[in-house]
Amino acid sequence: MIPAVVYAIPAFVLLVAVEALSYRFLPDDDERGYEARDTVTSMSMGAGSQVIALPWKAVTIVAFAALYSLAPWQLSPASVWTWVLLFFAEDLAYYAFHRSHHRVRVLWASHVVHHSSVRFNLSTALRQSWTPMTTLPFWLPLALLGIPPWMILLQQSVSLIYQFFLHTERVDRLWRPIELVLNTPSHHRVHHGSNNTYLDRNYGGILIVWDRIFGTFQAEGERVVYGLTKNIDTYNPLRVAFHEYAATWRDVRSATRWRDRAGYVFGPPGWTPNASNS
């Protein structure tokens, strides 16, 4: 089964080109816009992620199907309530995935790819991980709820397509009721900020309500500084994909105690033994 998001790729590429041209003809000094090497890196990361995702999708389907067969009941796709449950359950699963991938370093090593650009535009949405294996567990409960696997995969694609449009500086804040409920470009700019105020905020996929409920919401205020707290300053896709795994391994090798080794792997990004003892 080919994910629906694959069929959207030509539209993604076209919209990246349109947005890039908009900066050429309607420049804005307050927005960083595009840089050719950065855009090529983002699109290379996106292409690589899709190549890797195809065989991994077979593993995902098998896992979903196995748990679906074990579910105490199997929900009907003909029922509107199954789709309502799927929408909220999938979005909550995304929130859990996203938050954990910012707070556990070995998971962050996969997700950091998406935050490695110092620019924020539609091409940034395509800058995706080459190690998707850490994502699967967060969606497995949906199959155990009795939701058909094909529906889970479809809703995942819907969420990813929606999130593509969040990666832009060309859209200001939207109507207040929309900003209250849905994830928007303004909310997602905050998520990509390296400002102290913006770190580990706004994890939502389609909805922003989970962030409001669980205390991780932050409205856009001061100008967003994009990228990492320590930027990697490279356009090499291999380094972008694996730099944090390499850094984690270096820290683990330098540690002299097993508890410190575990902290470097399972603690939050930036964890150090001294910080844990302070």
From TrEMBL:
Q: What is its EC number?
A: 1.-.-.-
Any GO molecular function: oxidoreductase activity
Q: Which domain of life is it from?
A: Bacteria
Looking up Pfam families in the UniProt record yields: FA_hydroxylase (PF04116)
Provide the leader sequence positions. none
> Record's InterPro entries?
Fatty_acid_hydroxylase, Sterol_desaturase/TMEM195
- Keywords assigned by UniProt, alphabetized: Lipid metabolism, Membrane, Oxidoreductase, Transmembrane, Transmembrane helix
Q: Which species is the source of this protein?
A: Streptomyces coerulescens
Annotated protein name in UniProt = Sterol desaturase family protein
Record has Nuclease as a keyword = no
Q: What is this entry's stated membrane topology?
A: Multi-pass membrane protein
